[in-house]
User: Fold these one by one.
Assistant:
Number 1:
Amino acid sequence: MAAHPVEVDNTWERPGERAPLVTGGHTFASLTDTVCAVWEAPRPPRAWYVAFAISVALLAVFGAMIGYLIFNGVGVWGLNNPTGWGFDITNFVFWVGIGHAGTLISAILFLFRQKWRTSINRFAEAMTIFAVMCAGVFPGIHVGRVWLAYWLAPYPNQMAMWPQFKSPLLWDVFAVSTYATVSLLFWYVGMIPDLATFRDRAPTKFKRIIYGLLALGWTGSSRHWHRFERAYLILAALATPLVLSVHSVVSFDFAVSQLPGWHTTIFPPYFVAGAIFGGFAMVVTLAVPARALFGLKNIITLRHLENMCKIILLTGMIVGYAYGMEFFIAWYSGNPFESFIFRSRALGPYSWAYWTMIACNVLAPQLFWFKRIRTHQLAMFLVVMAVNVGMWFERFVIIVSSLSQDFLPSSWDYYRPTAVEILTLAGSFGLFFTLFLLFCRFLPMVAMAEVKTVMPHADPHAHPHAHVPATRRFDYNPDEFDQEQPA
Amino acid sequence: MAGTAQHATERRRFERGPDRLAAGAAVVGLAGLAAGVAVGPNVGWDVFFRSYLLNYCFVLSLALGALFFVMLQHLTRAGWSVALRRVAEFVAGALPWLALLFLPLLIPVLQGRPGVYKWSSPDVVAGDPLLQAKAAWLNPAFFTVRCVVYFVVWSLLAVVFVRDSVRQDATGDVGHTRRLEWWSAPGMLLFALTVTFFSFDALMSLNPHWYSTIFGVYFFSGAVVGFFALLALLVTGVQRAGALTASVTVEHYHDLGKLMFGFVVFWAYIAFSQYMLQWYANLPEETAWYFARQNDPWWRGVSLLLLLGHFVAPFLALISRFPKRRPGLLVPAALWLLAMHWLDLYYLVTPRPLGASYVPAAPLHWTDLALFVGLGGLFLAAVVRPMGRHALLPERDPRLGEALTFENI
């Protein structure tokens, strides 16, 4: 491997020049070698086994909890009469939200010509798909009679039964399944050239056949590339509105009601921003350990992490803006029910959850104003962990605080999750991480073909090594750097 | 600096033309204002002030869209847009002048005219418990203070972003770029809050019982659509006048078209979110606002025209690559979108709230036209005047080379 092992700081750039997105003196060949090494290694690193064991154990817990639920009914959860939605729907919205970053990175950042997306899009998309799978479990199991969950689908039947098209719960089925389909397709189409690389490097006949089938006969001819790039652009354009529509429709589940705290017009864009916020936090959560574990630090560089921190800061403030607008309008509306529920969120029985949410979602990301934090891996990891927690609590606060204190005080009740619900939530992480770890091991984790297009070698007019100092650190002082004006 | 022989010979500065045009626009604008004031007593001063508010918000929103665009380019360290940025800076540079033009709108507030802002009238508030509950926010003194804050923030941001960019033309110092990049993040934060609360104060409080948490985003989305349309027109105008003929290419128009298209869809998304949720929940305090816009043929027509003209038609017209790369097609689309943006504000401002103390004689007035000419002319003068004083693009911006050579693939 020709790549230089020293990690260089490419987060500084002089206006007018673009910092390198791949560091360490990588060439096309060394990049392919590095990414394929994750898959070609006879065994994954020991940490992978540890993580996989924990994930599978949690996955078993997930299965056990769902089995227990199906045998005994939803009574094993802590739901009560006003609070008909608790952990189940909170987890659903949480996981759907996580599933936003991948498609945002691969579709919207693509349309915005953000070249840095190429290093992170593949595993972010994988994460998206696994998160949507986790999300899909919860509406299925919360319906009570799980064996009738297929009634959600509009199929011809003899029961004179047809799903209620006026219900956003049905729109959700369509929105999420469309999103899952397009995201899967997008992920797969983008992966075809890299699957062909795996096929060509496969050490055994079995692997060659499997990856050969997946690569759909890719030869890398100009015609293939042309078709591929067309398809990618079209899928990006189709996926972009989907990124917005899924979580907008999820927000409709709440916002079309008349319940204070649920019915407010800012919900659709606010949910989308929150989803991107939470999704990016999860991408950073996965990227920080993955790049160290698999030797990808020169491909998923500090600059990539810093950019994601900036997006987290931005979307965190959009979420904070929405919290503020809700509060202000609750007062401004003059509607006593509205102002009650918001006062109750801050001061009432669920204030502990509310302030957890504010601390994690609004206050913690403010640390990202400081470059030192945005480029310090441990610090950023702590902040994004806070965001992961905060975004779960956001959904919990919205769902539970509004339901448990509706219009009629005599029917109020305090919702307390049972151990089954808590273990189901923990178990869903098992499903997510099991799938993600398998993905890291068996599929190309970085979009090799796309990353190559943003390397200086891809530009026939560039000097291949002009921007890539392989031997010295790139952490120049910007003021000092400005003085060396080009001739 | 990248550039070809054409870049070296193209015209990047105007001489006396903009001054003449600005003077002409100012004269027309003042004549429009005078005509508006002259017909004011006939149509009623409440109608006059509503027309003024409508047309004022139209030109203000364009300048705010420009400020947003300029800050966004610095925030994202964009390269492609540098060739267009100075023209956007000229538009944003009108903000301090617009602050002066806002002053007449304080008259109906301080006079307590219930026909414009009914919460400003103590008599109305005395008979309305809901307005009493909101009086801590909706009162003339606090309204005035907030407006001063908004205009101070916008004027300062506009001055900072225009001044540093223009100074860089002389010095070539990359420090200007760094400073503006630094300012762009807190600037954007201030922008979001001030634009939101301005839209609540100036537009949403026309119907003081009604509320919508998304309203600030709605106003913003329309403003950006209008601005991109205006930018396409101004850039075409500058090129027709013989300048920037090599620097601004079809690629820039293509990107402008994409942004226009994107924000048209964004506007529709926001408008739909607000409409669908209020329609679905069907709460009287919310639907009253839409009821006033759907209960007679005229306003129903305006609503439908907005749906078709502000979304469906431009969506279909701009979706393909073809028109975006042809200024001859993009210019009519931009004109259409500007008209639709005006219609959107007309739809926000003009319908009388339910239970209003009087019935308007007609939904459109001469003052709407006169003040459109008046404020539009003065705004145009403020935008065009600096075109004669500064280069038409940031000549020594470190990223200009990227803008000159970029291509859509």
Number 2:
Amino acid sequence: MSWFERIRPSRIKTERRTRSVPEGLWTKCPACDAVLYRAEIERNLHVCPKCSHHMRINGRERLLKFFDPGSTTELAAKIEPEDPLKFKDTKRYRDRLVQSQKQTGERDALIVMSGKLVELPVVACAFEFRFLGGSMGSVVGEKFTRAADHCLEHRTSLVCFSASGGARMQEALYSLLQMAKTSAALKRMSEARLPYISVMTDPTTGGVSASLAMLGDVNIGEPKALIGFAGPRVIQQTVRETLPEGFQRSEFLLDHGALDMIVDRREMRDRIGSMLRIMTGKEPAPAQG
Amino acid sequence: MAMNFLEFEQPIAELEAKIEELKFLGSDAGAKITDEVKKLQSKSRALTTSIFSNLTPWQITQLARHPQRPYALDYVSMIFSDWNELHGDRMYGDDLAIIGGLARLEGMPVMVIGHQKGRDTKERVRRNYGMPKPEGYRKALRLMKMAERFRLPIVTLIDTPGAYPGIGSEERGQSEAIARNLFEMSNLAAPILSIVIGEGGSGGALAIGVCDRLVMLQFSVYSVISPEGCASILWKSADKKEIAADAMSITADRLSKLGLVDEIIKEPLGAAHRDPQATADALKASIIKNLAELCAQPITSLLDNRQKRLSSFGVFRE
């Protein structure tokens, strides 16, 4: 802050802040730099209409746009995080939680809904990456497990959109054990012959990729999403060589046999709907008007 | 081998050096020196007891990583007989950071799987510092499936800094390999007993650690990320590792208070490397007792209990 701003009456500063609001109407595509009208991007599921770059999308918005409009019910909505270790780094975990809850409007980093996908009953969950990097702690593990149990009870399919940096450090070993807990829930679904489709979005790494995200009957990646066990920086520090072009992107994983397919977000509903109908022995979806 | 002392053990090291000196002189001196040696030895024991009764989580981490700490194969040779090591994942290669094989425990057939670190530089490189690649986890899974088929209980010995973060690991599906193990182990029809003997490093440890009972050696640690890793992310400085080690509750003692560990095996005075045989004896007694209890359960209730155990992990409110 310059000396002038410091002595300037605060009224003027406030005015400046309000002036910046309309900036939100326009946004720049981080890939092709095209200036885009925000409402248009939202309509286009946060995919750049010019270059098809897939921008990050909030978990709740993703689910609402994935299901048939008006068909959703949120599941396990009331589960809230605790701070069993009274964890404090440069900030208290409790404060970080409150801050993230305010910022995102979510209680934790996973949202679960049941609803219809082109009339087929489905349960789907999505990570909220803005909530502590979509990290998996006790709440994420419990909600995912309940989503799977709901599928077991109602014999429906499960879809998960992951976007996570991995396990949540502030819940330490509890977080690590969520990897085992969620994988066990998926094993139960698998034994019951219920389909699970995992969609990995940018980014899916660490404990989430090394558990629930990689265990899909079908593993889907969004275009150019970063997917991996260790982050590229950690790998670079360990191996001390330049990482290959496109390393740990969806296309790289498809090449190496870790993904079944890469699907454009705008075609996600149709693709998943088509496969789930085949896997569950249903007729093809009715034609959409 | 000369004892290797950690920084916080320096007062003990000094005393021990003095004792060695006196012993050296003592070969031609009289009873007076022998007496003095005895006095110093008991003083050293008292000092060790006092230092070791009050260790910080970071000091325990250093013990868990001690270069002289017994590794999986050391315990295998001290505890089991008829050891037949089995190699390879049948897909890509044999990862020496994970060992596994058929063995007997007091006559009883078992499958033993563990992380393996190396003792000297050459061996450390060969074992990749105990950091497995996907083929290591896939070998472990192959052996576990074999154990299921032949009705062998499984003992896993956990001791890894973590799964190896390398280009090849990612190319061959590190995430998938770990996830697959968690998935299969959750319902594998064989009793699984896991013991953290050194470092329980994150997903790389859990990938052979989904179990019916979790046991930890007194000076082992188990955590979601290394204290250094946690410190550099949350505190933006790896130097804060001591604070991070404390904050994450990574020691056997703290995890047992949280109800995440079923049993702690006490280590000899000065930790496992001071008396590997005594540690192995205690470990063996624990394995015998725990396997007897697990093998007595019908497999269906064993698996039910495992599901309940896995589902119970976590703290939240509703």
